[in-house]
Every structure is written in C-alpha cells, then in structure tokens.
Amino acid sequence: MNEFLKRIEEKKNLLDNNRPFPEYTVKSIRENLLLEWTYNSNAIEGNTLTLMETKVVLEGITVGGKTLREHLEVINHKEAILYVEEIVQNKEALTEWQIKNIHRLVLKRISDKYAGTYRNQDVIISGAVHIPPNFLTVPKKMNKLINWYETDAQKLHPIERAAYLHGVFVGIHPFVDGNGRTARLLLNLELMKNGYPPTIIRNEKRIDYYTSLDKAHTTNEYTDFVQLVAQEVERSLDIYLKLIQRNNS
To answer: Which CATH number covers residue 87?
Structure first.
C-alpha cells in the first residue's frame, strides 16, 4: 500500500507542477466529474437514471417515466457538491454542523423531517453483516469521530484519512437515510482539502465497495477499502494528467 500511495503522490505532484490549468480544460473536467460523481453516487443507492438522463436533469430538464425522488436526488447532490466546494475554498475545519448541512442538502424536499437530523430510531444496512449502533449513542459517536479527525487522523496519509472518515461515518449510520451519499461527499471533501481532484466510487465497483466496507466495520480491517479508494483517486488523477499531456503535446 505504501508503494501505491507513493505512486499516487508522484502523480499528484506532477499535476500540481502543471498548475494553473487552461480555463476550459478545468471547466470541462469539472463538469464531467460533477456528472459522474452525481450519477454514480445515486446509482449505488438504486437511482435508475442513466448517465445521460442524469446529465439532462442537471441541465434542468425532466425525464419522463422517472420518479420525482430520482430527479431530486440529482438536483440535491449537485447542490451538496457546490457546498462541499465552498467549504474547501473557505478552508473551513470539519464540524458536525457541516456534516448535518451536507445531509440536509442531500435529503432536501425528499425527507425534510429527517434532513440534517440524527436518527431517532434503530436501522439496519441492507445486505450487510454490520449492524449500526443504537440511535441513542449516535451523538456521542459522532462527537468522537470529529475528535478523532482532529487528532489521530491527522497522522494518516490524506487518502487513508479520507477513507477512514467515510468508513467510520457510514458505520455509525447517523441518519435514517442518505448516509451513503453523505459519506461519499465527506470522502471527497477530505480529498479536495488536500489538493486531490474529486474521486468517483463507480457504480460498477458497488459490490467491492460494499464488501470492503462491511469487512472494515466487522473486523476493523480497512486495507481493502483504502485500496479501493486509492484506486479511484488514481483514476481521477489520470483523467487530469491525460488532458494536460494533450495540451502540452
């Protein structure tokens, strides 16, 4: 893993050395990543909109035969991404208030009763062995997560820290709904704070994603999950680097 992370660091350094990027290169990459991020994060949770249908909804057009919830999931996710970008730009420290705000955007107009509010009931994660903790312990566990992030987590490589933040958060499952989308937004919030491009957990990797997360929650062994995240980070870096190479050739 250390060699893998070292290779990724070398690619990131190469990317940093080519900053600033051409205006329209940045614009096209950002639009593509925003689309892929929204499509894949929603698809993992069962949204049936295709990539092109998601693009159409992002452009403000309604797709026939799809539910209102599926449309709102796309619109809300885009707004949540814009909020995450604002946090990164302002260099704000991670807080529970931010996490609740991200979740509020994810569930806005879908489930306003539970948007941005910790769950008041117990839940299970479909298909997982791991059972989230009793709802009464959620506030304490979320406070502990923030304390860990501010202290011990800062000793980790940024990719490891982002993966653990995502994993521990989704293990707590602090909200009734929308935990997965919120977790993936937190993953990218941490990566982007450290100069990495947004990273897409692809729907085609869903089985590996869920399996490695469940392993992390039941055994506290995060290696598989960190590796999956690192692979997707490298993929995003490669997208940028390929375009830069074209511009320089």
So the answer is: 1.10.3290.10
Instruction: Tell me how far CA of residue 89 lies from CA of 5, 37, 75, 134, 159, in angstroms.
Output: 25, 19, 21, 36, 19
Following CA atoms 91, 97, 99, 104 in sequence, which dihedral angle do they give, to the nearest 10 degrees? -120
At 249 the pLDDT is 61
Q: What is the pTM of this model?
A: 0.96
Q: Please, what is the Cα angle at 67 between 64 and 68, to 5 degrees?
A: 105
Model pLDDT for residues 182-214, shown as the tens digit of each residue: 999 999 999 999 999 999 999 999 999 999 999
- Provide the angle, in degrees to the nearest 10, between the axes of the packed helices 2-17 and 158-172: 110
Q: Which residue in 71, 77, 173, 217 is the catalytic one?
A: 173
Q: Name, in order, each residue with C-beta under 8 angstroms of 41's C-beta and a sequence gap of 6 or more.
A: 77, 180, 181, 184, 185, 201
Residue-range definition of the domain harbouring residue 221: 2-248
Sign of CA dihedral 97, 101, 106, 107: positive
CA-to-CA dists, residue 1 to 8, 28, 162, 179, 224, angstroms: 11, 32, 15, 27, 10
The total number of structural domains in the chain stands at 1
d(CA 205, CA 46): 14
The pair phi, psi for residue 109, each rounded to 5°, is: 65, -5
Cα dihedral 204, 208, 212, 213 sign: positive
Q: How far apart are CA 65 and CA 234, in angstroms?
A: 36
- Residue 178, Ramachandran bin (φ over 0: left; ψ between -120 and 50: alpha; else beta): left
- Told to judge if 130 belongs to the known catalytic residues of this protein, a careful annotator would answer no
